[in-house]
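A reminder from the course coordinator: this example appears on the midterm review sheet, so study it carefully.

Given structure:
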């Protein structure tokens, strides 16, 4: 019995084959035709459509034509710039696609599974899909209104399951998409669908992950970009939670801005009276309350100090440094709430900076003598400190001073009674 002799494969032949493959003409139309024919044979059955896609990956070049796969599954055919579908070729379009499907969520979820399973099977398609979505969203204006709704609902499902990052929505911040509320309507549909499908916690998490919470205003048309329009638009879709998140982020940003502005002004040694007016204007503009401003002032002023390493000299040095800024602190410590906030900040600072632990009472006394802190607030703090940091030690430091305040108060009251 003669043995079958295998022909040796020369390395040169391999190289030739590889070069021939590389020179193979790029033919997205031919790939689309093969895909459309297979999907049409499935007759609208998404399970059969997925089986075809799963098997076709071994015959068709998914790595090279990944974008075409997603064009076909979303729009039914090859997408042209602007959003229309190319009608060139033998079989240019299939109805087994998102744009031809019903917009109800059950149908959308069934399509979601096709995408999830396909990308799980061919992992390299994941990155391609993110790029595809950036392209498709730019074409939004070219789609029909109902197609936009379907795409928004699918985008919500893809964001929810991790197929695309939430930050992909930022491609909508584009002048031609902002006009006529296209971008705004789209993101509202996405957000409302994520909330409906996965709950408000997932929605908030998605926004934070995409760093969108501070950028919601950017989805509004330029001529209507205001907090009022944002509030009414989001409230109309039941998205009040996102408004709260947006305001918190905007507020945090404003505090950072005010902090940096104050640090810059302190470095330039600007007169305190000018600082007061500038801070007042910034605080009013961004609705930052005095009790928060006074805490920021303390933090910035103390960051400017260069402290002596000897504890016995530190308290006097810190008091002297602070004395320059007492008019600034006093300007924003006009309410009991602001005074308590300042006193709590002093307490926490002295606790967190160990060398200041023994300086606490001296700093409070200086702030009392310069009319920044009132005796009522000091006594209130002594009875019930807001913070537990260093509480026992600081209460002990303040004991004699508080006793003196209480006796002075009693003398004052008895004097009034005699009158």
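Designed residues:
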């Amino acid at each position: 019995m003669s043995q079958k002799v295998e022909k040796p494969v020369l390395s040169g032949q391999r190289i030739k084959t590889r070069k021939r493959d590389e020179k193979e003409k790029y033919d997205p139309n031919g790939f689309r035709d093969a895909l459309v024919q297979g999907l049409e044979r499935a007759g609208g059955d998404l399970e059969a459509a997925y089986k075809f896609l799963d098997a076709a990956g071994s015959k068709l070049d998914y790595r090279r034509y990944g974008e075409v796969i997603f064009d076909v599954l979303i729009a039914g055919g090859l997408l042209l710039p602007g959003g229309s579908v190319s009608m060139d070729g033998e079989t240019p379009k299939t109805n087994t696609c998102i744009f031809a499907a019903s917009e109800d969520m059950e149908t959308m979820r069934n399509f979601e599974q096709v995408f999830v399973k396909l990308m799980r099977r061919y992992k390299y398609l994941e990155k391609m899909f993110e790029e595809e979505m950036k392209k498709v969203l730019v074409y939004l204006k070219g789609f029909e209104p109902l197609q936009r709704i379907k795409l928004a609902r699918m985008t919500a499902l893809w964001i929810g399951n991790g197929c695309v990052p939430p930050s992909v929505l930022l491609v909508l911040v584009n002048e031609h998409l902002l006009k006529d509320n296209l971008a705004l309507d789209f993101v509202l549909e996405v957000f409302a669908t994520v909330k409906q499908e996965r709950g408000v916690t997932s929605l908030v998490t998605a926004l934070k992950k995409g760093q969108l919470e501070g950028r919601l205003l950017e989805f509004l048309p330029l001529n209507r970009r205001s907090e009022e329009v944002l509030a009414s638009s989001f409230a109309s879709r039941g998205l009040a939670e996102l408004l709260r998140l947006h305001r918190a982020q905007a507020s945090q940003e404003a505090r950072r801005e005010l902090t940096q502005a104050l640090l810059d002004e302190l470095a330039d040694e600007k007169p305190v009276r000018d600082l007061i007016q500038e801070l007042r204007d910034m605080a009013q503009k961004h609705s930052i309350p005095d009790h928060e401003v006074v805490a920021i002032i303390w933090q910035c002023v103390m960051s400017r100090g260069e402290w002596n390493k000897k504890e016995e000299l530190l308290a006097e040095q810190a008091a002297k440094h602070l004395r320059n800024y007492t008019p600034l602190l006093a300007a924003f410590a006009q309410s009991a709430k602001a005074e308590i906030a300042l006193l709590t900040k002093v307490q926490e600072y002295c606790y967190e900076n160990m060398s200041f632990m023994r300086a606490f009472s001296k700093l409070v006394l200086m702030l009392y003598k310069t009319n920044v802190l009132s005796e009522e607030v000091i006594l209130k703090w002594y009875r019930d400190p807001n913070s537990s940091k260093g509480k026992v030690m600081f209460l002990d430091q303040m004991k004699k001073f508080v006793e003196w305040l209480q006796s002075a108060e009693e003398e004052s009251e008895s004097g009034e009674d005699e009158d």
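The two ends are 134 Å apart (CA to CA). The CA atoms of residues 195 and 202 lie 7 Å apart.
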